[in-house]
Amino acid sequence: MIKKRAGLAALAVLGATAIALAGCSSNSGSGSNSGSGSTNANGIVTTNGSEPQNPLIPSNTTETGGGKIINSIFEGLRSYDADGKPVNEVAKSITTDDSKTFDIKLNTGWKFTNGEKITAESFTKAWNWAAQKSNAQGASYYFENIEGYSADADSELTGLKVVSDDEFTVTLKSPQSDFPLSLGYSAFVPLPSSFYDDPKAFGENPIGNGPYKLASKSAWTHNTDIKLVTNKDYEGKRKPKNGGLTITFYTSQDTAYSDAQGGNLDILDAVPDSAFANYKSDFPDSNVNQPAAIFQGIYLPYYLDHWKGEEGKLRREAVSMSINRKQITSKIFDGTRTPASDFTSPVIDGWSKDLKGSDVLDYNKSEAKKLWAEADKISPYNDTLTISYNADGGHEAWVTAVANSISNTLGIKAEGKAYPTFQEALDVQTNDKLTGASRTGWQADYPSLYNFLGPTMGEGSSNNYSRYDSAEFNDLLKQGQSADSVEAGNKIFDQAQELLLKDLPEIPLWYSNVTGVWSADNVSNVKFGWDSVPLYYDVEVKK
Predict the structure, then answer these.
(1) Could you read off the pLDDT of 345-378 as tens digits, one per residue?
(2) Which helix (H) or strand (E) is 438 found in, with range?
(3) Phi first, then psi: what are they for 46, rounded to 5°?
(4) Which residues, 6 or more positions from 182, have their beta carbon under 8 angstroms from its beta carbon?
(5) What are the C-alpha distances in Å from 417 to residues 331, 390, 391, 437?
(6) Which is more confidently placed, 34 or 183?
(7) Cβ contact 79:86 at 8 Å
(8) Mean pLDDT of all residues in the chain?
(9) Full 3-state SS string of 321-387
């Protein structure tokens, strides 16, 4: 989900943590994907998802399970269209003369679903709360460039100034050319005054201002599903064409796929690898396989023996060169993945496939063995190399293939290490309890090269699970953010990536396409966005 996050956003691309769907609403009607024919404006769309890791507080939701929900029930200053282009929502205008101080004027008439008017303070107070160290929010680093931010102690964001109910200004510590682009991310949404009375309770039953709202106070059944209904007062660009959304948390993608085949699930946004060869024939007129802003890899944390210092650097390079990405993406993923040549995504403006040092991502058996032997001279490696993953996310086949490729190339024992749910796998990473490698993935929060780099490997990021700490890399990130244009910043981010190709705090594997299917008998007008998430508000339910 920056994180969806994301988003995502943010770390897990695929995951689910609960029980299979036990009956969905019955939808019927005409239908092509064009949306023509008779439709039911009150019909409920059913889709797959995963149990959120945390209560539904926008600034602490950095994984895709929660991100899918947060983005449905909140609206920020901006949103993103299907191609990732930002469009103003609550914001009437966002202007700047120097990319350091921004004047933000709001459209009038926006309200939360409890009737409270949305004002400039709805944003400034929420951002201040999210940025405070004592509140320990996973996305607090999104506010680090605002004047007054401190990662070491609670500190007022002095760069936020309310001009009037409908206007506020933001002053950054340094110019940030892509700041307006980032404002569609969920960490920047407004919050109602009731949030501050009891944030924990709010997280169980959030009050938003987006296209959907919780169907009731008991709408979120943990580890089962969450039921959303259309917010009739919503007047933004994402006006729903349906009556609501039920997101079911599956323990198995195969089960979800079977439900989609049986017409019991309207939309599945992650086809399991077991169905890659057949999903187009199973859903001949209702499938998608298109590029998305999703990166996948593995990493080996620096707190483990053998994976730090010069020995660790050699071993990371050896592991990277021992993985036959072309073979795995062809045989396991049936063309739904593309071998990675960097740490971002080809759908993002500024992406480059010709970075210096990217040959470390090529399969090179002889060089891999040589590097591994050099590392063994420093300290012999007698362990089994495990690759952790969540069993509910459809990762077993590729993790096994990657482990076999490493084993066969380096002559060591490598194998997968499954955790039952995404939430359990993520908790192990968050608490620095890994005993070997782990899968990693990033679904962009907003369409920027920086969003793939800073949140996952930057200093202080809650998603920097490898615990990478490079002053040179962090300085390049700051330089890129301070550039006077997005294009100039991207050139510096390429330099940062070339450093990453030397250090390999993450080992890139491939870019993901979004591979999804839907029930043509139940729904029409199904589209998937730049970040792989279906545009639920556009879906039409057939009578």
Answers:
(1) 998 988 998 899 999 999 999 999 999 999 999 9
(2) strand 437-443
(3) -110, 140
(4) 142, 188, 445, 446, 448, 451
(5) 21, 9, 9, 9
(6) 183
(7) yes
(8) 91
(9) HCCCHHHHHHHCCCCCEEECCCCCCCCCCCCCCCCCCHHHHCCCHHHHHHHHHHHHHHCCCCCCEEE
∠ at Cα 188 (182, 190), nearest 5°? 150
Characterise 520 by phi-psi region: left (phi > 0), alpha (psi -120 to 50), beta (else): alpha
Tokens at 505, concatenated: 């705090």
Contact 59, 130 (CB under 8 A): yes
Beta bridge partner(s), residue 225? 221, 248
- Tokens found for residue 423: 């939430």
- How is residue 209 written in tokens? 């201002």
CA gap 83, 290 in Å, rounded: 12
Coil/strand/helix, residue 101 = strand
Single-letter residue type at 457: M
What is the Cα–Cα distance from 52 to 95, expressed in whole angstroms?
35
Query: Exposure of 324 by Cβ count < 10 A (0-12 exposed, 13-18 middle, 19+ buried)?
Result: buried
Residue by residue, DSSP assigns 381-411 as: --S-EEEEEEGGGT-HHHHHHHHHHHHHHHS
- The whole model's pTM is what? 0.77
Kindly give the pairing relationship between strand 167-171 and strand 244-249. Answer: unpaired
| Amino acid letter, 152 | D
